[in-house]
Amino acid sequence: MSIRIFITGATGFVGGHLAEACVARGHSVSTIARADSDTALLERLGASVHRGDLRDLELVQRALEGAEVVVHCAAKVGDWGPVEDYRAVNVQALRDFLGACKGKPLQRFIHLSTLGVYAARHHYGTDETEALPAVHIDGYTQTKVEAERLALDAFRSFGVPVVVLRPGLIYGPRDRTVLPRMIELLRTGQLPYLGRGKRAINCIYVGNLVEAVFLAMEKPKAVGQVYNLTDGEFVSKRRFIEAIADGLGLQRPTRSIPLWVARIVAWTMERRARRLGASQPPRLTQARLKLFGLNLDYSIDKAKRELGYQPKLPFDQAIQETIAWYRLNA
Q1: What's the predicted TM-score (pTM) here?
Q2: In this structure, is residue 283 part of a structural domain?
Q3: In this structure, is residue 258 part of a structural domain?
Q4: pLDDT, average across residues 118-146
């Protein structure tokens, strides 16, 4: 049965893949896109594109007419910059958007969060029962915590059928942010291991994430719940990085920096960059130290049990498909 699905951030990496999958399943897609956004993919898919901004409440009300499911992918991402810049997009715009959804006959409002909302420490099978810290290490994760709370409050207070999904590091074809940066660092020999590279990285292939979104649409039990999502297998930092290096014919990292040294370096670099008012992040930040140095292993048992989530593509196959795309398009 065809469903009318409204996707925020549909011109982005995850939103674009989701829009493709929706159309392939016979669903109709609509979105709001800024005037300068590249909507070529969406136009080819036959999606309904409303030009404007999510903060334009009149436009949002019109665009939401007839929508049965909302998937909120839009966010300001990154690990540098004033927290208020992130808050304006990730929290305030979401607050207004949820207000526009109040009273709409939605079947689901799926909010894409991140595993980054958990504390910046080693994790070994952490599940959704863990309380989130009130203060975070950067503007992105800080505001994603606030956004989750806002979304769940909309469910409790006025019945918006919210489901919160917490994916890990998302990779796959058409990623223009994380993997391109890693590839550039590998090409220039500037990607050392933090520690020995044997700790877990919390990755998820974009196709596996899209499947989880559809499960969240279908399962009544999902409403009001939060789910961790990864590829469901142990992938070390070294395995992830070396798969990219080997696949693109680049040299594997040859240097390792002890984690305790990396902590000092990140703290020093961030302090200096802030003092100088740098608009770009230093080479090593607390967020990058977390991603590449800490053990990030999270339980997805709840998603398996309640959603029936079983990652379709194992890591080795998923990373090969990702690398094949970069070979042709990078």
Answers
A1: 0.95
A2: no
A3: no
A4: 95
CB contact at 8 A, 79 and 13 = no
Report if residue 161 sits inside a domain: yes
Angle of helix 315-329 relative to helix 178-187, nearest 10 degrees, comes to 70
pLDDT tens for each residue of 65-97: 889 999 999 999 988 888 999 999 999 999 999
Domain count of the fold of the chain: 1
Q: Rounded to whole angstroms, how far apart are CA atoms 27 and 24?
A: 7
pLDDT range class, residue 156, cuts 50, 70, 90: very high
Q: How many CB atoms lie within 10 A of CB 326?
A: 17
The answer as to whether 249 is a domain residue is no
- Mean pLDDT, residues 183-201: 92
> Which residues constitute the domain of residue 122?
4-177+202-232+297-313
Written as one string, the DSSP assignment of 60-97 is: HHHHHTT-SEEEE------S-S-HHHHHIIIIIHHHHH
